[in-house]
Specification:
Elements lengths: L1 H12 L3 E3 L2 E2 L2 E5 L5 E5 L1 H18 L7 E3 L2 E2 L7 H14 L3 E2 L6 H11 L3 H7 L7 E3 L17 H8 L2 E4 L1 H6 L7 H6 L3 E4 L8 H16 L7 H8 L1 H6 L28
Parallel strand pairs: 1-5, 2-6, 7-8, 8-9, 9-10
Antiparallel strand pairs: 3-4
Helix pairs in contact: 2-3, 9-10
């Protein structure tokens, strides 16, 4: 119901939006002593996926095509193999994007390795989840990262799969992290779009900070340019959605414009 109202609000404002309710199989529970654990409920997670599929059938293409459906399983560590497999199958059936927060912390990385003796990326590959429809915020803790001791070829797997990493520099920096690096992963053939995942949802600030963090990670002023991050926020993001008619001003493309009031604290 919340996302049904979101579709109406987006259409009223003239926003082009990909929407779908979030779902998961596991949820973190805090014990009385302050410790926490993950409570698993497979039935509830699969019901959430069924609700998301119903939302796609109802709203995909609504309001003259402004509203499109997508799948939004929550975080990789809160999903079971069955939920991941079925999400990938529904994404393929309807041809819609599927977003899964992934490789955003060492705790997450270690939890997946402990459960399956595979990295998060290796595990997703084993479940046939990775495809050109897969959108993966945040894509930081991959094999080869300075904090990841485990050996593997996460970068090669991602490049071959066609999946897109969604880089969210601002929220990562608040937790002391960054990609290693945007430039190196792009050079390896991985498509990277730009996201926010925090307040304020300020794409301009994420572009600005992302450039600096990439240069710091690579110890080079030429590692990334403003154009690289502008493309990540526009062209590459649209390509990740399979939309050559978005993200650029060109013959045959939608005449979408986004205006930013740079004096607004809650920009976005």
């Amino acid at each position: 119901d919340e996302f049904a109202r979101s579709a109406e609000s987006a259409a009223e404002l003239g926003i082009r939006a990909y929407l779908g309710p979030c779902y998961m199989t596991g949820v973190e529970v805090v014990r009385a002593d302050g410790s926490f654990y993950t409570h698993w409920d497979e039935e509830r997670g699969l019901k959430g996926l069924a609700d998301a599929e119903r939302y796609i059938r109802t709203f995909d293409g609504a309001h003259g095509g402004l509203i499109r459906g997508m799948l939004a399983p929550d975080r990789i560590e809160n999903c079971t193999p069955e939920l991941i497999r079925r999400s990938a199958a529904v994404s393929a059936e309807y041809g819609v994007p599927v977003r899964l927060h992934c490789c955003q912390s060492m705790d997450e990385f270690d939890s997946i390795v402990a459960r399956y003796d595979m990295t998060p990326i290796e595990w997703l590959k084993s479940l046939d989840f990775l495809s050109e429809r897969a959108l993966l915020p945040h894509g930081v803790f991959l094999t080869g990262h300075s904090q990841v001791a485990r050996q593997g070829d996460d970068v090669g797997i991602l490049a071959a799969s066609g999946a897109t990493l969604i880089h969210c520099p601002l929220v990562l920096s608040r937790y002391g992290g960054t990609m290693e690096s945007f430039a190196r992963l792009r050079k390896a053939g991985i498509r990277i779009g730009l996201g926010t995942d925090t307040f304020p949802p300020d794409m301009v600030e994420n572009m600005r900070l992302g450039i600096s963090l990439c240069r710091v990670a690579d110890h080079s002023v030429t590692a990334a340019s403003a154009a690289d991050f502008y493309d990540a926020a526009t062209v590459h993001a649209a390509d990740a959605l399979g939309r050559p008619d978005l993200g650029r001003l060109a013959v045959g493309a939608k005449a979408d414009m986004t205006l930013f009031d740079l004096s607004d604290f809650a920009i976005g």
